[in-house]
């Protein structure tokens, strides 16, 4: 008897792999992205069949999946080719916190795992609520500049901007966050960042090592509060640039910790300068 739900799934990006593992449904996965690092055991257990914008089509076909999961317009060509070869393909396009949670619910429904998916979503929402509660105790909300890439300088996508706000900060470029494509989030004038005077600079250069010295030495950036006070921090790509559970757990936790530490140091600096609390 043929199963009514998919039992052989290829995940072309990490967030669906992590979600299936969190649901205890990893047995369904027959292929993953080579960029997958969460959970670590997935790399040991599952064949790697894709990068991000490319895939081993023949190898995927050989796995005989009954569902292939992808993400965004960047995988549209892969999805189209697999569909032309007769496979069922679903491409998610979540760009906000709410959409991430919805995509998790959708995936759970696709595999007939609604109850455990509801529990997972509720745990994720409760974690975000705890971060919001911690943020409410901050003395001041910092201005935060998040840099997703350095050459050219690309600011953060919507879910990162929202997580910064949940963690107690204000995104310096909120008008760019809603633009889904990286090329539409390029900061054309690098001097615009100093004009917006971020208190904290966060960077996640898509897997490339963050080098604070390159940022602080940019022309006109020396007097940026974040540079002046040494508030330049890396947030690992694996926990913030994947629109899935990682961003809503370890990602927002890392941002929250940086902001809370900044707040404590900021209070100490004001006190040292005789400014009180």
Top CATH class of the largest domain: Alpha Beta
Compressed to H and E, one letter per element, the order equals EHEHEHEHEHHEEHEHHEHHEHH
Class inferred from helices and paired strands: alpha/beta
- Mean pLDDT, all residues: 95
- The shape is globular
* Helix share bin: 40-55%
**Annotated CATH homologous superfamily of the largest domain:** Nitrogenase molybdenum iron protein domain
Binned strand content: 5-15%
Strand order of the largest sheet: 3-2-1-4-5
What does this entry look like structurally?
It is a single chain. This protein is α/β, with parallel strands linked by helices and 277 residues long. The chain has two domains: 1-92, Nitrogenase molybdenum iron protein domain (Rossmann fold, 3-Layer(aba) Sandwich); 127-272, Nitrogenase molybdenum iron protein domain (Rossmann fold, 3-Layer(aba) Sandwich), CATH 3.40.50. The protein has 13 helices and ten strands. It has helices spanning 14-22, 40-45, 57-62, 76-84, 97-110, 114-135, 158-166, 174-177, 192-196, 212-216, 225-228, 237-240, 245-272, and strands at 9-11, 29-33, 48-50, 67-71, 89-92, 143-150, 153-155, 170-171, 200-203, 232-234. The strands form two sheets. Strands 3-2-1-4-5 form a five-stranded parallel sheet, sandwiched between helices. Helix 4 (76-84) links the parallel strand 4 and strand 5 (89-92). Helix 5 packs antiparallel against helix 6, helix 6 (114-135) packs parallel to helix 13 and helix 7 crosses helix 13 (245-272). The longest helix is centred in the C-terminal third of the chain and has 28 residues, at 245-272. The model has no long low-confidence stretch (mean pLDDT 95).
